Amino acid sequence: MFLAPALIGFTVFVVYPLIRSAYFALTRYNGLSDPKFVGFDNFRRMFTTDPSFWPSVRATLLLVVLYIPLSLAIGLALAVFCNQRMRGVSLLRTLCYLPVVLPVVATITLWKFVFNPQVGLANQVLTWLHLPTSEWLSGSDSAMPSIVVVMLWSVGSTMIIFLAALQAVPTELYEAARLDGAGPRTVFFRITLPLISPIMVLQVVLQMVTALQAFNQPKILSPDGMGGPGFSTRVLMLSIYTNGFPSLGRVAQLGYASAQVWVLFLVIVVLI
After folding, report:
1. Where would a tag sit more exposed on the chain, N or C end, judged by fewer CB atoms within 10 A?
2. Single pTM value for the model
């Protein structure tokens, strides 16, 4: 009886949409006319004839490869630093976590101004340092790294989880290691890392899901809002959005977008 509201909510908001999207994935549907059953034609088109699908896969993989190691390394480094006993550490933890609670769209819009090639702060700093400037979001080679930088702005959530794991390590182990003459590097690699390895695995999974589902940053930061320049930042989530929602001169392809959703969903399930 007590589980009824949760079960009803899960059925209405999770199970039914999954079943409905699975049906749409097998149809040609634009949201206005009745769905027309086409079998696996959407999947066949996706893997064989759609010129944007495989570039979207490559862009997504590049985002995953760049984002996950940097997110883990920076998050762990901040956690280790914030785990020290020193004055002002509470303020430091707050400042590290603050970007996580700021409005996402507003923050990304500010970063878009920072990366503006004409008046942005990033190129101004490079000019002051007498270094060559960059096109940032307008360059096919620099656009994805720029998006990764913006995503790392919210690394505070990774830091907090690592910090909780570090504080769960018994201090007696550190004291015993120091008495045996172990240095900071030995303590970190022989004691700290092995004990927080389960959290490390959890973080890899969480950051992988974050990277695979990235949408706000590529959508807002890309010059055309569709993953430009070219397909360099058109990740799978943005490809799904572009196909699923109508735009100027384009008709919604909800059936095809649903097929892409299921491919991404199955990839995430397999990786997890």
Report:
1. N
2. 0.88
